[in-house]
Structure formats: structure tokens, C-alpha cells
Amino acid sequence: MSNENTNKKQQQLEQFKTDDSGKKMTTNQGLKISEDEFSLKAGVRGPTLLEDFHFREKMTHFDHERIPERIVHARGAGAHGEFELYESLEDVTKAGFLTDTSRKTPVFVRFSTVAGSKGSADLARDARGFATKFYTDEGNYDLVGNNIPVFFIQDAIKFPDLVHAVKPEPHNEIPQAASAHDTFWDFVANNQESAHMVMWTMSDRAIPRSYRMMEGFGVHTFRFINAEGKAHFVKFHWKPVLGTHSVVWDEAQKLNGKNPDFHKADLFESIENGDYPEYELGVQLVSEEDEFKFDFDVLDPTKLWPEEDVPVRIVGKMTLNRNPDNFFAETEQVAFHPGHLVPGIDFTNDPLLQGRLFSYTDTQLIRLGGPNFHELPINRPVCPFFNNQRDGYGRQTINKGKVAYHKNSLENNTPEPAAPEEGGFEHYQEKMEGRKVRARSDSFKDHFSQATLFYNSMSAPEKEHLTNAFSFELGKCESESVRRQVVDMFANVSTELASAVAKNIGLEAPQGSDSGVTKSSPALSQENTVKSAKTRKVLLIAGDGFEGDVPSIIEKLEGEGVEVEIVSESMGVLKGTDGSELKVDQTFLIADSVLYDALYAVGGKDLSKKFVQTTSYFLNEAFMHFKPIGATHEGTKWLEANDIADSPGVVHGNDADSFTHSFVEAIKAHRHWSREV
Fold first, then answer.
1. Under a CB-based contact definition with an 8 Å cutoff, are residues 279 and 318 in contact?
2. Is 279 assigned to a binding site?
């Protein structure tokens, strides 16, 4: 391009540049806005009103900012499965799939990261989406949640602000899929309702071991309504049968380089191998008369209901047993919406949920090209659907006849509405009163008590990981003012945490004191989860001349559900001292310790210097990541050479039965944090 043309192009661009500093906020029509924190409601705890033109304009613009990739949750993986009910919930809901224990309800689940683009890596520090579509006989029901039970904001009008802050900074599109930058932490410091969620995203929950070992939550408070019309507030939980487990931060960063599809591949391969991911569905229930008996507002999406106060009732199990046939047609085109309901489930006035009810349909219109996304095979309900909607982009149904309106006589007024006793959906008749206001209930104003509850509930290693995560993220911020504001803010949560972070990033200890909350909730710590060796992957390091009992040890490990892969210097078959054989699955060029849950060092005869050096690297890296390590025969010498033989979680010995039992127990523990403490 010539200099003349370059100048012309620059002049063209200049006329569109703006400087918003010092200006008053307006709508896109130029109307000055007096409030941008709260959506318009019928009373401070009432529902959001459709007439809120400012909310609709702001959210519509946000929903349409990216095409065709999802704005958030762009990177994901999906699977088909089925849901079975353990016990009927007819005492609290009339939803058929939650009352009939003889039914098997097909489901499709999409897991995802939130902040990164479709091309980002799986192990970003981030919340994870956990969205489930139930194809019920009464229509599709979508439970659209995350792996964290709370959220950053209390009102949906703030969602564009949150995502703009956490996305790559607009002047340079850096960093990708990361919150460790100025704009995110500036948002946190100046929107302190985010304190509780930030504690979760800085914890190990934000770097899960796999989708199979990750909890899911509906986040919002919904309503159950039974056949008699009685309502209960409800929160939904998915509990992984294998327990809730995570990786460590150094491991996560290396995994993003070694295999950026680590979570996606784990889900796909597990299903292909028949190791079907399983999650139990639990519900927390609060009767309407108990709505105000807690020290938090049950409608506040930045608050959880402690399981010790409101027990989780386990009612069923979901099994994911089939991979998609086509990633684009199914995983990419699936369209979730929290407004897809069935009789027996309804909304509450949670202001974040109220906004999502508008946003999701609006997003699908641009992402999937129009109003007929429900006709895509992955989105079609299993029950028939009839209405007077016609035409539009992507229409697949060929409607017969000339009537497309209600009421009518030409077609005997069909289709016609179904009465509630015929299965027609009926909104819960909640009494509403209040002035039309842009405000938030005073009961939403406590931003720190549950953040402190979370911190109090962590084990010593988990607290150390929190400190390191905050220190890493704030250490990446260029603005000292932002770092200072965040440290001062989290002194309200824990002076211990804030002071440790301040020291790590070169700031003076913050002034003030924390919330004073001493309560804890053991259910929040991953130390108290299910411990199992099933489907854990062990990398066995061996060469020619291995001892003859190794194949029997492998058989015993696999009998406990452990998956063993053999790594050596080259592919082929290894020969044992007794003539037994082991087929090599991976070479050192392909395998890496971070890709496995545990290592088992076997050794061999006449191994090369490179073999020994690589093995030492693998062992030390696994040790640094607190993973179980086992060794027999020649492999024990490597443990001694690296001075790790007598450490917690390191198992060795030449008695096959005793070794196998002890090694399986070490694998069940997942990580051996006493090395750290």
C-alpha cells in the first residue's frame, strides 16, 4: 500500500475513533443513563421488566459481538448419555423426568471453558461450563450451569462488563484465555460482589483434572412446583462418582503445551474405552416459608447454600455413554437456554437468572442464523412440537395448510393451548408488588462473608494454592494501583491471605480486618471428596531385561480399574528376564509425566544414558506435582538416586501383592500434599 493510500486509510479510521474519558454514559441513541449497575425491576427483589430498554440494548449488543463463535464458552466438548432417577421427587415437583423412576431420559452435555476462544487450551485457569439438555417427554429441559456454584455478579446487566474485563484487552488482544491482567483485576477491585467467585476461580476448582472429575451446579435458585401447586426453592448439583480432583498450576501450564486438548481427549477416550463418566444429581430444597431464615439472600447468585445447613438430596444418576458423531453438528450447534423448562420447574427473581432468560435466545439468533435453531437435530425435542411459528432462516419443517394464527376456525382452532391438567405449562403465581426501580436489595450487599467461609473451609495445601494463584495473577498486572486495590479488598476476606499475597508481590501488608466469619463448610474442600483409583492413568517406565513379575503387577493394577501405559526409548516389544513380553505404548518423545496420574518405574538392563536421564526428569516432575510414584526391582535405584525413595506417596518393594496394594492406595489419594506442607 502506498503512503498516500495509507494516509487515506488512517484518515478514514480517525473519524470513527472516540475518547470516552470524562464523558457521561448514554445509550446508543444518545440518551444519558443515570444508572448502569441494576436492571429495572418490580421492587428491589422483584422480576426484571421487559421495558428495560437500556438492559436490552446493552445485552443485545453484547450477545452479538462475536460471530459465529460463542462469545463465552467457545471452547467445549460434548457427549450423549442418559439420566436415571433413584427416587421420585413427586413430593416437590411434577416434572415427569423427576417423578417417574421407570424412565431413562436421554441427555446431551456440553463442558466448556468460559473466557477463552475456541482455539485456546483446555487447562486455562477458568470456570467451566456444565450444561445439560434433558430430552424429556414433556419437552427439552436445559440445566445450564458451571463447575462453581456461585458467580461474579448479581445482576445480568453487569455481564457484558465482566466479560469485557476478563477477555483479552482490546488494544492488543492479549492475553488469551487468562484473567492475569489489569482489566480483570480492576473490575474485581471495583465490583466487590465478585469476591466470593474469585476465591473459587483462584482455587484448585479452576484447574480440574478432567471433566469426569468436576462438580456441576445450576448456580441459580429455581423453583420446584408439585401437583398441588406448592413451591420449594431448589438448587441443583452434579456430583462426579469419581470425586472432584484438580491438577496443580505448574502442571496445568505444561499440559496446555503438551496437549492443549487434554480435557477434550480425556472425555472422548474415556467413553470410547467404556469408562463412562457418571454424575449423581442432587438437589437442595428450601420451603417458601423458610426463604428469609438464612444470613444470606437465597436469590443472590454470589451465595451458595452450605451443605451442612441445607443438605444435598441425591436423587439420580447421569451416565455419558456415547460420543458425538460430528463435533460441529452436535457439540458446536447445540443451543442451551435456562428458559427451556418443563412443568414442575420455574424461575425465581434472581436478577442474574432473569437477564439470562433474555440473553440466551438473543445469542442463538445470531450464532445459529435465525429463529429455527430448535430444528437442528441436536436441539430437536424427542416429543412432537406444534405451533403457529413459520418461516425464518434455516426453516426445516414443511407446514401444511393456510392457517398460522390463533384463534382460528378454519382449522378448528388447532393447535390449541393445553390446560395444566393436560400437561400445559403454568407459571407459578407468585405475588408481586413494589415500585419500578433500578436498585438492588440490601440483602445482596454482603460480599465477603461467604468468601471467608470458602477460605476457612480449605485445607492447608489448598490455602497455599490460593495464595500462589493470587500472587501469580496480580504479579502479571502492570498497574500497582490495581494490585493495591485488590490486596486491600481481599483483606476483607482474610488478612492472612491478603498479607501473604502482598508480601509475594512487593506490597505492604493491607490495613483493616477480615469479615470475622469463623464458620467453615467441609463440603467445599476437595480433600473431602471421593477417592478412587478407577480410570487413573499410570505411566510404566521399562526397558529390556525387566523383572518377570511386572506383567502380573500390571494385571493386578488393571483389575483395580487403573489404566497402565508402557513407555520406553522406542516402540516395539520389551523382553523380560523370564522371557515375558511387554508391548510399548509410548516413547519418551511422545509421553510426558504431566499426562499421567502416577508413574511406575520398572527399569531394565543395559539402559542408555538418555533413558536414565529422561526417567529422572519424569520422576522429579511427578514428585514436584505430588503424584503417586511406584517402583520395583531396578526402578527402586532411580528413586534412591533422586533422593525421593522415603517420601510420602512413593511406594517401592519387590513383593508383588504388597506393592500393588500400597500403590493402589497411593493412587487413590490423588496427590500427596504432605510433601508440600
1. yes
2. no
Q: Annotation-wise, does 356 bind a ligand?
A: yes
In terms of Cα–Cα distance, which of 581, 577, 623 is closest to 601?
623
pLDDT digits (tens, 9 = 90+) for 542-572: 999 999 899 999 999 999 999 999 999 999 9
DSSP string, 380-410: --SS----S----TT------SS--SSS-ST
- Evaluate whether residue 625 is within a structural domain: yes
Is 471:176 a contact under the CB 8 Å cutoff? no
147 and 257 share one domain: yes
The percent of the chain in helix, strand and coil, each rounded to the nearest 5, is: 35, 20, 50
pLDDT digits (tens, 9 = 90+) for 288-322: 999 999 999 999 999 999 999 999 999 999 999 99
The pTM for the full model equals 0.91
In one letter, which amino acid is 121? A
| Residue 484 annotated as binding site | no
φ/ψ region of 282 (left if φ > 0, alpha if ψ in -120 to 50, else beta) reads beta
**HSE (side-chain half, CA atoms, 13 Å) at 437:** 10
Distance CA 543, CA 552 (A): 17
Q: Is 233 labelled as part of a ligand binding site?
A: no
- Among residues 73, 196, 220, 625, the one annotated as catalytic is 73
* Residue ending a domain, choose from 375, 405, 421: 375
Per the structure, the complete domain to which residue 90 belongs is given by 40-375
DSSP class of residue 329 equals I
Catalytic residue among 54, 80, 140, 146: 146
Q: Is residue 146 annotated as part of the catalytic site, yes or no?
A: yes
